[in-house]
Write a structure and sequence with these properties.
The chain is about 70% helix and about 0% strand. The protein is mainly alpha-helical. The relative contact order is 0.14.
Amino acid sequence: MAAQPLPELEGFIDRLKAISDRYERVHGIDRGGDWHLLKVQEEVGELTQAYLAMTGRSRRDPDTARHDVAMEMADVICMIFLMARDESIDLNAAIEEKWMKWETVMAAENHA
């Protein structure tokens, strides 16, 4: 079996969940049901807004847009990680199956 693509992932998601648990507690937000999916959608929308500003295609301030893009990318990734945990999805296994299999294909192509 290959090494996990993201060996520190579970511990990292534990840290994100603790932060998200605090958010729920402090703000009284119920994160049950489809909350994570809806947050992913919200954050993708915010990423799109920031990207449009960064590329000069919106009324938003382009001077801070690159930083805003980075922050929204972080939000999208972290919400995906939290959604995976909430849905009992093993992202390491999914990444291995969906993406890392191509390393074998590429290696065979390089030896052809």
